[in-house]
């Protein structure tokens, strides 16, 4: 089943998880369909700047750390 709704509590969990994995030097990858509401929330929150998204963003915007387009 897919996530159709992502609120601030869900975002807080994801931010904490990404931070914890980073501390442990483990890379995270979020999978969210390009046109999904959850993906839009992830992008608007800034989480997409901390962790790469799959499928990659096709808009030409930077995708995340270690991804093409990030310098």
Provide a short characterization of the protein structure.
It contains two helices and two strands; from the N terminus they run αβαβ. It is mostly helical. Helix 2 links the parallel strand 1 and strand 2 (53-54).
Write a concise keyword list for the protein shown above.
71 residues; mainly alpha; two-stranded parallel sheet; 35% helix; disordered C terminus
Describe the structure.
There is one protein chain. The chain has 71 residues and is mostly helical. 35% of the residues lie in helices and 6% in strands. The chain is built from 2 helices and 2 strands; from the N terminus they run αβαβ. It has helices at residues 8-23, 37-45; strands at residues 30-31, 53-54. A two-stranded parallel ribbon has the order 1-2. The longest helix has 16 residues, at 8-23. The chain is globular and about 30 Å long. Residues 67-71 have low confidence and may be disordered.
Low-confidence stretches: 67-71
Structural class: mainly alpha
The whole-number mean of residue pLDDT values reads 85
By DSSP, the count of extended strands is 2
Helix content: 25-40%
Rough shape? globular
The percent range for strand residues is 5-15%
Distance between the termini: 35 Å
Largest sheet: spatial strand order: 1-2
Assembly state (oligomeric): single chain
Order of H and E elements: HEHE
- Our Rg estimate from Cα atoms comes to 12 Å
What is the tally of helical segments?
A: 2
Q: Could you describe the largest sheet, including whether it forms a barrel? A: 2 strands, parallel
């Amino acid at each position: 089943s897919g996530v159709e709704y992502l609120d601030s509590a869900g975002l807080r969990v994801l931010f904490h998880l990404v931070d914890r994995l980073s501390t442990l030097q483990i890379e995270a990858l979020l999978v969210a369909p390009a046109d999904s509401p959850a993906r839009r929330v992830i992008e608007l929150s800034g989480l997409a700047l901390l962790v790469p998204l799959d499928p990659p963003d096709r808009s030409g915007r930077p995708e995340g750390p270690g991804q093409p387009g990030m310098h």
